[in-house]
Amino acid sequence: MWALTAKIIAFALYLGLMIYVGLRNASKNTSSADFFLGGRKLGPWVTALSAEASDSSAWVLMGLPGLCYLGGVKETFWTALGLIAGTYLNWLFVAKPLRRCSVAFGDSITIPEFLENRFKDKSHALSLICVFFIVFFFTIYTASGFVACAKLFRSVFGLPYHVGLIIGFVVILTYTIAGGYTAVCKTDFIQGALIFIAFVVSSVVIIISLGGIGNAVAQVQNFDAKALAGEFGADMQKAFQGNQNFSVMSIISALAWGLGYFGMPHIIIRFMGIRSDEDVTTARRVGISWMVISYIGTFIIGSLGTAYLMKHGILLGMRDGSGLSADIAAQFTQYGDAETVFSMTMQQMYPAFIAGVFLCGILAASMSTADSQLLAASSAVSRDVYKGLINKNAEEKKVLLIGRITVVVIALIALLLSLDDNSSVFGLVSYAWAGFGATLGPLVLLALYWKGMTAAGAISGIIGGGITVVAWHQIPASVAPIFGLYEIIPGFIVCLILSVAVSLCIKDKNEEMLKEFDAYKSK
Fold it and tell me: What is the chain's mean pLDDT, rounded?
């Protein structure tokens, strides 16, 4: 009873702190620029940890460790490598130019607004199409955060899936609506620090508890061999066999996750909101250091968690024990989703209250991403659609109100998408990640570095990239091996080719746009 009470206290204190930060920053939002971009006043440490916490989401503490647990070590390694490379290149080639460019082109607050100002799109078609894809993919992405919250509460407190879903929904909604960008960044800073500490400490503890690296690896290999032999049931055997078949195409797909960063609105918006260009270098170093160490932690907890939990009679990866023979099943005290390997390990590793604090890291990862996505999506609707098209003379209070209403609506739709308790955090994130990388990624890069890019090219590219991702995602690899390729690759290529080709076909380019770009580059 005390163990459960201690965990409840830890979670209550954490959730209370997040809501407090949101309410405390509510009075600072006097304009939509404050609510959606924090007035471009945040320093490098808050910006860096906020960006990385928003980027990593719950799949770093649930999706990737769960994949490792089920023998997907190769996929986890190559995916992490692609993500680290993508993050570094994003900070190096996008961060500083995007901050400068977004200020130079109409002091833009959102990504659709920036693209519209950059390409002088008087029709507003580009902005509307951007908003559509942002809302569509962010709704799916936000659903993954709600799913992670529900799975966490179920594994820690034994709560019904849908009860945990509602708790996560209410807390995230409360501080996002109240505090806006500043609150989201500050809570993300706290959450990023918590995730970092949880991974570092737990990685050391699990290695020591398994008798050192050599012994730990041997125990994991023994577990893998038994799983492949079918000793833990047909479901586990199928999962391990599937993760053993990792081809060159699979490596390319895993590395391609890095392409997504160039088009992630909830990440690149942090570049626009940083205090100054000079702070970008510090932020990049902080962010990359955090990411490398955190992914190492993901790898260690996920892969060694198999051996560690076996010592405590726990087997994950199945919804029940029906796939095991009676004598094998009798050895295990608990079954669960493989994506709960981090939470199950924490509960066995630490005293109840400490475990509760570290388990808040999963909640932190879920919330830090969901809040940023809700804010980015609502800014697109309220700034780019409502103020940009419907009511250009709208007062700031009205724009803020529309933004908050949009947060609620998108969150409700994401909640509906999360109702299926069989939902995979990794699967939802993968789809949304591909959508953003293939629609906005090439446009952002071309906007920053190519003078000849046009609005027509951007519109063609984003539509082509988006359609390609959705269509490719629906076609199974059984139709043809090429469809086993991660959809971000063909989507990114189609968007890039169409954007460049259509822009080259336009001979009479907007003179004002060309002059503004030259002026921006000369500074």
Answer: 83
Determine the residue type at 361: G
Per-residue pLDDT, 315? 84
Q: Which residues contact 226 (CB under 8 A, 6 or more apart)?
A: 232
* Domains identified in the chain, total number: 1
Closest CA to 345 of 61, 88, 90: 61
What does the pLDDT look like over 12-46, one tens digit per residue? 887 777 767 666 665 554 545 545 554 566 677 77
Place of tokens 């095991």: 324
How confident is the model over 306-350, as pLDDT tens digits? Answer: 999 988 888 887 655 545 555 555 555 655 678 788 888 888 898
The answer to whether 7 and 157 are in contact (CB under 8 A) is: yes
> Which ranges of the chain have pLDDT less than 50?
29, 31, 34, 38, 322
Does residue 439 lie within any of the structural domains?
no
Cα 448 to Cα 278, 284, 432, 517, distances in angstroms:
18, 19, 24, 9
pLDDT of residue 263: 92
Determine how many CB atoms are found less than 10 A away from the CB of residue 522. Answer: 6
In a domain? residue 516:
no
Give the pLDDT score at 16. 79
Q: Rg (Cα) of the chain, in Å, rounded?
A: 23
AA letter at 216 = A
Residue 409 domain boundaries: 2-421
Read off the tokens for 438.
């293939």
Residue 459 domain-assigned? Answer: no
Strand partners, 42: 274
Instruction: Return the ∠ at Cα 391 (arms to 388 and 392), rounded to 5°.
Output: 55
How many Cα atoms are found within 13 Å in the side-chain-facing hemisphere of 89? 15
Whether 433 is covered by a domain: the verdict is: no
β-bridge mates for residue 274, sequence order: 42
* Per-residue three-class SS string for 219-286: HHHHHHHHHHCCCCCHHHHHHHHHHHCCCHHHHHHHHHHHHHHHHCHHHHHHHHHECCCCHHHHHHHH
| Tokens standing for residue 96 | 């500083």
CA-based nearest residue to 130, from 443, 445, 471, 478: 443
- Residue recorded with tokens 């730990």: 216
Q: What's the CATH number where 54 sits?
A: 1.20.1730.10
Q: Which residues make Cβ contacts (< 8 Å) with residue 359, sequence separation at least 6?
A: 7, 10, 11, 152, 156, 343, 346, 347
Task: Tell me the β-bridge partners of 314.
Answer: 334
Number of residues in the chain: 523
| Whether the Cβ atoms of residue 168 and residue 366 lie closer than 8 Å to each other | yes
Q: Are 438 and 487 in contact (CB under 8 A)?
A: yes
63 φ, ψ to 5°? Answer: -65, -55
- Partners of residue 334 on adjacent β-strands: 314
The answer to whether the CB of 224 falls within 8 A of the CB of 71 is: yes
